[in-house]
Amino acid sequence: MKTVLVFYLLLSAHFRPSIAYRTTTDQDSTVELQTFPDNIRPTFDPYQLWMQSLAKVKAIEFVVTLVIGTLGVIGNLLILVVTVHYNYIGIPQVYMATLAISDLCIAVFGLWRVLADNLYFLSDGVYWFCVHTYFPVIGLDAAASITASLTAMALSLDRYLALKYPMKHSEYWPVDKAKILTVTVGLISLIFGITYPLRYYISTTRTPGKNMLPPEWTSLGENQAFTKTSVCVEFFFRFALPVVVMAVTNTATMAIIHKSDKFRRSMSKYTQSTINTPKCLTMTVGIVIIFFITNLPKACFMMDFIIFQYSHSAQFNTSFITFAYGGNLLAKLNSIVNIIVYFTLDSEFRATLLKSLRISGRRPVEAACNIAIAASLQNATGRDHPNPPQHASEAQLNVFVPVEEENTCFQDTRLSADDTFWGVSTVSCQETQVI
């Protein structure tokens, strides 16, 4: 009997689990779950698993947005610097500057949003500041995006009209009207951006255990008619209208360019050189193509809300959230590719940028030209010029000739008292922009 008892105790000790088990039942089956301390307990909650995968996606978005935002700030500042250095600001340059300002705002606001998402927990003051600026900044970001889209549309339409009706375009659409148009577009876009803080807010009470700033609906945002109308209006002005107009004008522009090239090839070289072509045509085509590529996923995401109201996003679909983040990042990528398009396709922009960065190698050549001209004039007249120039400008080469040679139509009146013997004949060295 004693042997049987000992054997029973050994068996019970061997088969007894070291950790207690508890049984939970639901309507489908009985699941046996092992209990652990709270700090090491694994989670089987689908929502918690989805939040963990979402945190990984947001970490990747944080790094990529920082890189894109930084490059966007640098690139668009360079575009503005080049625009300031232009000798003449035409209509294309007005639209280019507006695009640069809009893309600069997009980059700055995007940087602020990801920083607020990841730094709000530093202190109560930081949390309060992030809460009160989060959705207003997102609204400004949307307004800047709408401004950029409408400005790109205006640039495409303007270049088509300049190519199709060159005389009427220069007469009825001066630079001042283009400036007024860009300011008006920016103000209208702000109205659309205001809807974001009207629809969403973040609670001022910090929720423990939350690893993000949870948005909540305002009383106005809970109105489905207002929310859907706001999204539809933003979609129309940000994607639908620009895409349709740019597709039509870009196709017509490329058709005209093709016919023009065929006509040019049938001419003599001298006749080809006398034809003036509107500037920035190739650059405009590049901007339109890049706009289509970078904004298509974001447009699909907004169409999903208009049609399905994000109904499938409530199923903890990580793929849907990843697509949403990817479309947002690709749309922001448009803010850094414009400088690449300008630098590649616009020779005037490229030359001005290199000159602004002081890496152009043309200054020694220009200085040598002026020295040679001054020496030849000294030999011809037997007299030194009191203040010979050190170098010529990027776009002009100053050729000095005596006043007696009746070049009065080229004379420059900006001469000092010591320069009364000299006139200035200005010969333009700037190449005409070719498609």
TrEMBL record:
Keywords: G-protein coupled receptor, Membrane, Receptor, Signal, Transducer, Transmembrane, Transmembrane helix. It is found in: Membrane. One of its GO terms (cellular component) is plasma membrane. SUPFAM superfamilies: Family A G protein-coupled receptor-like. The keyword Lipoprotein does not apply. Belongs to the G-protein coupled receptor 1 family. This is G-protein coupled receptors family 1 profile domain-containing protein. It comes from Capitella teleta (Polychaete worm).
